[in-house]
Amino acid sequence: MAKLMATLCLCLLALVSAVAGFAGGAGAQAQRPSLAVTDTRPFQVRGSGFEPRERVQVLLAVNGAQRWRSTVADAAGVFTVEFRVSLGPCARFTMQAFGSKGTRARILPRRVQIDCVSPSGGGSLGGR
Questions:
Q1: Which residues contact 105 (CB under 8 A, 6 or more apart)?
Q2: If you ran DSSP here, which 8-state letter would residue 114 be given?
Q3: Contact 99/51 with Cβ under 8 angstroms?
Q4: Which CA distances in Å does 45 have to 7, 20, 38, 121?
Q5: pLDDT by residue (tens digit) across 47-103?
Q6: How many whole angstroms separate alpha carbon 70 and alpha carbon 31?
Q7: Chain segment 15-50, per-residue pLDDT in tens
Q8: What are the C-alpha distances in Å from 97 to residues 82, 86, 87, 117?
Q9: How far is CA 92 from CA 7, 38, 59, 95, 119, in A?
Q10: Which residues contact 64 (CB under 8 A, 6 or more apart)?
Q11: Could you tell me the pTM of the whole model?
């Protein structure tokens, strides 16, 4: 009986170790690159999932005008950039980030404020 218990304990320990190793491996996978607007005054964007210390070029396009910013992701692959622009709540914009190691992320065309009621879509890249 004692030998059976010892065998069961070893099997259980092996199973727990295997599950822990699998979960740790899944957590260690690279995060998918993404962009998120964190503030609109000034217009700030946060990128994550980039390679550590990767140089990143960020493009903001509004109504045919473009603004570029350059930055370097930190050790966790995260960066924040600021665009000193004036965008109305109904402005439609697109944002893309291009990393020097091939990482890319984008925000598809969308409005600054989701519940915008103005049909004009007003917005420009005029600086402040």
A1: 33, 34, 35, 47, 49, 50, 96, 97
A2: T
A3: yes
A4: 55, 35, 5, 21
A5: 999 999 999 999 999 888 999 999 999 999 999 999 998 788 888 899 999 999 999
A6: 21
A7: 434 444 444 444 445 689 999 999 888 899 999 999
A8: 13, 20, 19, 29
A9: 64, 16, 14, 10, 11
A10: none
A11: 0.68
Asked if residue 81 lies in contact with residue 59, where contact means CB atoms within 8 angstroms, the answer is no
Burial per residue of 30-52, b for 16 or more beta-carbon CB atoms within 10 angstroms, e otherwise: eeebebeeeeeeebebebbbbbe
Strands (E), 1-128: 34-40, 43-48, 55-62, 65-72, 79-83, 92-99, 104-111
Read off the tokens for 30: 């690279």
Closest CA to 97 of 47, 52, 38: 47
Going by their DSSP bridges, the two strands 104-111 and 92-99 should be labelled as antiparallel
Q: How far is CA 3 from CA 6, 10, 15, 44, in A?
A: 5, 11, 18, 64
> Exposed, middle or buried by CB within 10 Å (0-12, 13-18, 19+), for 113?
middle
